[in-house]
Amino acid sequence: MRRLTVLLLALAMLAGLTACGMEPADPNTAQESIQVIAMDTVMTFSIYGEKSTHAVYAAEDEVRRLEGLLSRTDPESDVSRLNAAPAGEAVTVSEDTRSLLEMARFYAMMTEGAFDCTLAPVSSAWGFTEESFRVPSRTELDGLLQHVGWEKFQLPEGQNLTASHDEGVEIDLGGIAKGYVTDVIAGILEENHVPRATISLGGNVLVWGDRPDGTPWRVGIQDPARADAADGYAGFLSLTDAFAVTSGSYQRYFEEDGQRYHHIIDPATGCPADSGLTSVTVVEKRERDANSNILGSGTECDALSTALFVMGEEKALEFWRTERESRQMSFDLVLVTEDGRVVVTDGIADVFTPDETSGYAYETVS
């Protein structure tokens, strides 16, 4: 069953992860809000400031453009042309597509394959791409897994905007594309000197600046056990200038013979990940360092939310600790577990508020 929650403009954003508590703009501050359906997701953009109208429609234009490049179901997209090409044939793609393929390969390596954009044939075997759901046999999955692995697609070094793949390999960037879109939108907000905004692409949220009253935005984390409830939250984050991305088993699934099968596939088994988690939220601040380099990435949050869900609680926290110590990535986590716990990493513990009505036990880890 596919779930898309209609988002109510200027009230709340409800879809796995939600920016809540939106209030009317200052009387002296322009505001523009639109709702867009793209990338199989209900999206809302609410942007403030003198250039709010220009920025909001520039953001929509970018969403449409990137969807045209990255969609696996559009036969004219870069991804579809790459998938349709014979094995080993170099396909010219856009700079955006090439960049995203490089990022997908990087996060596959960093997570030791827990994130993998070559799972497309396996996802199709389960019917998640076409929404014709079925349970494939073990033999079928084993055969498809022979063609899965980030090392099976090639990106020549240098400025050459081409890509190719091995026999039987297909690319699906759906697990990282919306994160990339939020990064692009963040660039638009910066270019237009937007003072504040909330951007929701389903489970991908970007909060920019603070609320009109000067307080942080309130970002609600959907309770997987109450996914249909308007007030069903596992907790809330108070954030400014941050990405927050949730992946959960409740977002897209089907049931057969009393068994639920969700869309987050474990690349090691070809089956829905049985990790003991029901959702993973990855949070990163977006800021610039002393050298004006951008820190924080929606793309990174998107890839990690999937990978860490596949890993499960223990390995996800080990990965978080390792990356924190190495300073290669700087992110924090909210994990919701099947056994009724919400685990929050200490970097965001002071901005996390439990929902006491949820029935979860709450833990902070360091």
Describe the structure.
The chain has helices at 52-70, 78-84, 95-110, 120-125, 138-145, 177-191, 298-311, 313-326, and strands at residues 17-20, 31-38, 41-48, 91-92, 153-154, 162-165, 197-201, 204-208, 217-222, 233-239, 242-248, 253-256, 259-262, 277-285, 287-288, 294-295, 332-337, 341-345, 352-354, 361-365. The chain is of the alpha+beta class. The strands form five sheets. The chain has a nine-stranded mixed β-sheet with strand order 2-3-7-8-11-14-17-18-20. Strands 1-9-10-19 form a four-stranded antiparallel β-sheet, with no helix packed on it. Strands 4-6-5 form a three-stranded antiparallel β-sheet, with helices on one face. A hairpin with a 7-residue loop joins strand 5 and strand 6. Helix 1 (52-70) packs antiparallel against helix 6 (177-191). The protein is globular.
Write the layout of secondary structure elements.
Blueprint: E1 17-20, E2 31-38, E3 41-48, H1 52-70, H2 78-84, E4 91-92, H3 95-110, H4 120-125, H5 138-145, E5 153-154, E6 162-165, H6 177-191, E7 197-201, E8 204-208, E9 217-222, E10 233-239, E11 242-248, E12 253-256, E13 259-262, E14 277-285, E15 287-288, E16 294-295, H7 298-311, H8 313-326, E17 332-337, E18 341-345, E19 352-354, E20 361-365
Parallel strand pairs: 18-20
Antiparallel strand pairs: 1-9, 2-3, 3-7, 4-6, 5-6, 7-8, 8-11, 9-10, 10-19, 11-14, 12-13, 14-17, 15-16, 17-18
Helix pairs in contact: 1-6, 6-7, 7-8
